[in-house]
Amino acid sequence: MIFNCQVIRKHLLVDKVYQLQIYDDRITIGLNNRQLPKYEIPLNLTNRISWRLNEKQQFMEFGIKYNDYVKWFSGKPDNLQRIKQLLTNKIFNHSISTFYQQSELIGSGASSKVITIIDSNKVKYAAKCISKDYITKKKTPDRLNRLLSEITILRSLLNHQNVIQLLDIFEGDSTYYLIFEYLQGDTLHKFIKQQIKPLSEDVIRIILAQLLQGIQYIHSNNYIHRDIKLENIVLSNKQSIQNLKIIDFGLAISSTIFTPFAICGTPGYIAPEILQQKEPNQGQFRFTNKVDMFGIGVMLFRMMTKKSLFDSENTKELLSLNRKCQLPKSQIHGYSNELNNLLFGLLESNPIKRLSSKDALNIINITQMSQELQISQFTTFQYDQDDFEVEHSNDFANTPYQFPNKFLKYELENSFHCNEDHKHSSLHKSFQLSFSLRFSQDIPKQDFIIENFQNIPS
């Protein structure tokens, strides 16, 4: 047992006092500890709990669904607040407007909207709002399972400064909400693009150290991200390379549980062993965390050159270049042999020979990186201002790409992501920062209702 306290169920004549107990997998509510509980609520993502606060934002009551009715219980505010804390990310909360006010729309896509929200202490967060209609309209559990898997993985990754933090989850009548820490900075893609010239080796090493430590933490917890790319790395603060965050775990899987083969990720970042699989052998393919290391190698190449490793305006050609994985034959000038060796070790086409996160961290000097990270707060970056660049909030599929076979088409429809380099080219796939449910072939709805929040701009 993790926690217990008294709660009161109010009745017309006589109120009843119950004992509430919280365990790892359930909540029980009974008259006393010696009898079987009257109410038992499994702590899983199929259930939700409602809350009532007073005008001072003190917890007053919570409600649970029992036999199609919501049963309300009151208790001491401190106890109820403790219950809320202990249940974080284990069960959906209801009525997000009880705790937050919506601020502004910062992203929009076919399946989701991302808005900033503010709590009673004026602290800003980011909320990913996912339409239930979008989740359920294909009448298969795949989309819901992906969402629940993303939540399950994120709540297991709460103890690293370089991994995005999922802070709370809510379920409304028509919308799911994932509450994240608010990151003020740009994506690493945009940060690099804004620089006048390629990054210096010192800056690259500072960025790499954080990425490698973050990905090592993910791998040590037996997860594979499967969509490591520049757009999924975000600066916590503007113009600062300290405290980078790895985001978007919508394609992440467990490395200890067999996952059926799927071509997934972003063209140009996909590990070649995935694209090289022949259909007869796909049933035996097992994902390894080395697919993430290849993505880090692609990012490192971009940091060193300001160029894409595989570059084409045509989807089929880009996939072909990615699959063949023909690397530059010479080292990149202006950088040390050590950094070049790290680059080619990460981009090794054979996953067995490819560097692991531990291998890569051993190559760069972590002690030196820590010292440089302290110095980096004083670093001034020179930005390449492009007054004619227009940011687009939507980039939906206009003409679906004809994939080479039905199996590949199915997988790419459900798991293929686009990157910022090609969002205005023939790669017409839906792309939005931190959206994890990107099913590019769906016809997007013009809007969906986010209940409790009013007047959200579209």
From TrEMBL:
Biological process according to GO: mitotic DNA damage checkpoint signaling
SMART domains recorded: S_TKc
Stored Pfam families: Pkinase
One Gene Ontology CC term in the entry: nucleus
PANTHER family xref list: OVARIAN-SPECIFIC SERINE/THREONINE-PROTEIN KINASE LOK-RELATED (PTHR44167), PROTEIN KINASE DOMAIN-CONTAINING PROTEIN (PTHR44167:SF18)
Residues of the Protein kinase domain: 100-366
Organism: Paramecium sonneborni
Stated family: Belongs to the protein kinase superfamily.
Highest taxon above the source species: Eukaryota
Binding sites annotated in the UniProt record for ATP: K128
InterPro entries: Prot_kinase_dom, Protein_kinase_ATP_BS, Ser/Thr_kinase_AS
Swiss-Prot/TrEMBL keywords: ATP-binding, Kinase, Nucleotide-binding, Serine/threonine-protein kinase, Transferase
Protein name: Protein kinase domain-containing protein
GO molecular function: ATP binding; protein serine/threonine kinase activity
PROSITE patterns: PROTEIN_KINASE_ATP (PS00107), PROTEIN_KINASE_DOM (PS50011), PROTEIN_KINASE_ST (PS00108)
